[in-house]
Amino acid sequence: MTKYLVTVKPGSSQEKIIMAAPADSSNSTGDINSTNDATPVELTVYLRAKPHDGEANIALIKALAKHFKVPKTSITILRGAHSRQKLIEL
Questions:
Q1: What is the mean pLDDT of the chain?
Q2: Backbone dihedral region for residue 53 (phi beyond 0: left; psi -120 to 50: alpha; all else: beta)
Q3: Strands (DSSP E) along the chain, which ranges?
Q4: In sequence order, which residues have a C-beta less than 8 Å from that of residue 24 and are 6 or more positions away?
Q5: pLDDT tens per residue across span 48-77
Q6: CB neighbour class for 13 (10 Å; exposed up to 12, middle 13-18, buried from 19)
Q7: Does residue 64 contact residue 26 with C-beta atoms inside 8 Å?
Q8: Distance between CA atoms of 21 and 41, rounded to whole angstroms?
């Protein structure tokens, strides 16, 4: 299972995902499959949904499932369900 440190930007004009390799990783290609589980990959996710009644969390899971081509049920918010900084496990 892979962990991602996600910064959510709700209320954006367009939806997009920006991926950055961990700062202490020796991986220069940015390949997320070769990173260590101890250092999560950082993502910034821009969402159109507003952070109201969990709409942004639902939109986040849907966007990540589409981006990584996995079912929505395989994505878990480990920490930060009520915050813009989240720890996600795939």
A1: 84
A2: left
A3: 3-9, 16-20, 41-46, 76-79, 85-89
A4: 39
A5: 998 888 899 999 999 999 999 999 999 999
A6: exposed
A7: no
A8: 6
Question: Which CATH number covers residue 80?
Answer: 3.30.1200.10
pTM (predicted TM-score): 0.78
Determine the Cα–Cα distance for residues 90 and 80; give it in Å rounded to an integer. 15
User: In the chain, how many domains are there?
Assistant: 1
Name the β-bridge partners of 87.
5, 79
Strand partners, 18: 44
Q: Which of 64, 65, 53 is closest to 8 using CA atoms?
A: 64
Distance CA 9, CA 83 (A): 11
Domain encompassing residue 50: 3-89
Question: Of the candidates 2, 11, 3, 6, which has an alpha carbon nearest to the alpha carbon of residue 83?
Answer: 6
